[in-house]
Design goal:
Order of helices and strands: EHEEEEHEEEH
CATH architecture of the largest domain: Roll
CATH class of the largest domain: Alpha Beta
CATH superfamily of the largest domain: 2,3-Dihydroxybiphenyl 1,2-Dioxygenase, domain 1
Distance between the termini: 23 Å
Number of strands: 8
Largest sheet: 4 strands, mixed
Structural class: alpha/beta
Helix content: 10-25%
Strand content: 25-35%
Length: 135
């Protein structure tokens, strides 16, 4: 089994596409106004409209209601990301902080309120863990 993507359901695909394109620097592939994907070297972030939820079963998912998942992106320099984001992200959940597991992390919320973590391994163990992962 291989994790291929994580999908966020939203009322406004275009708004989330704009946010994630700006945060990641990745251009989204738009299938139509109801579905987009941002493909990275290690996985895909999919963005689906609430209009697609019925395909999975009525009420299977809802927009802007996540309080348990965090979308995480490995970056080369958390401090540089923070400097770039502070000019347009209105609220930071946490400014760059070194976590007990060895990553320097920066948490923001996307326009739907989903948590987004930009992190950089900084301890020897964390650096070794992500050594082969492209940033």
């Amino acid at each position: 089994m291989n994790l291929v993507s994580v999908r966020i359901i939203t009322d406004d695909v275009a708004r989330l596409v704009a946010f994630y394109e700006r945060v990641t620097g990745v251009t989204a592939s738009l299938a139509n106004e109801d579905f987009a994907e941002l493909r990275t070297t290690s996985g895909t972030l999919a963005l689906g409209s609430t209009r697609t939820v019925g395909l999975f079963g009525p009420g299977a998912a809802g927009p802007a209601a996540n309080r348990s998942a965090i979308v995480e992106f490995l970056v080369a320099d958390v401090e540089a990301e923070f400097a770039a984001l502070r000019t347009w992200v209105p609220e930071f959940v946490t400014e760059p902080t070194t976590m007990p597991w060895g990553n320097r992390a920066l948490l923001v919320r996307d326009p739907d309120g989903n948590l987004v973590n930009l992190f950089e391994p900084v301890t020897e163990a964390a650096v070794a863990k992500f050594a082969a992962t492209p940033r």
